[in-house]
């Protein structure tokens, strides 16, 4: 899997990560918590990745996603900025969401 971050998206994510941060991963998750539906894509900043996560290639910070949830996503995708505080996840064939929040879950 490869996820391309546009310059705007990479800049916004790096800003949220901060300069003095220790290890930080950007994870693409298929979030089913409190959404009242089958699930939505989300981006989380985490200190460590889970045992079930696999690293994915990107042109941004280290990224991972849950191996079992990869079936919901395509092999090549793009993350772009969408407004002042959200992101858009898309591929050549579809837009997954244009209102993805970046949630900081670092400990």
Structure write-up:
This protein has 107 residues and is mostly beta strands. The chain has a single domain, classed as Hypothetical Protein Aq_1857, Chain: A (Sandwich), CATH 2.60.300. Helix content is 10%, strand content 44%. A 9-stranded mixed β-sheet has the order 8-7-6-1-4-5-2-3-9. Strand 7 and strand 8 form a beta hairpin. It is globular, with a radius of gyration of 13 Å.
- So, the CATH homologous superfamily? HesB-like domain
Question: Are there runs of 5+ residues with pLDDT below 50, and where?
Answer: none
Give me the Rg, rounded: 13 Å
Report the total helices. Answer: 1
Strand content: 35-45%
Q: Tell me, what's the shape?
A: globular
Number of domains: 1
Mean pLDDT over all positions: 90
Order of helices and strands: EHEEEEEEEE
**How far from one another are the termini?**
27 Å
The total count of strands amounts to 9
The top-level CATH class is Mainly Beta
Summarize the structure.
The protein is mainly beta and 107 residues long. It has a nine-stranded mixed β-sheet.
For the structure shown, list the relevant keywords.
single chain; 107 residues; 9-stranded mixed beta sheet; 10% helix; 44% strand
Topology, please?
Elements lengths: L1 E4 L1 H11 L7 E7 L8 E7 L6 E6 L4 E4 L9 E6 L5 E4 L4 E6 L1 E3 L3
Parallel strand pairs: 1-4, 1-6, 2-5, 3-9
Antiparallel strand pairs: 2-3, 4-5, 6-7, 7-8
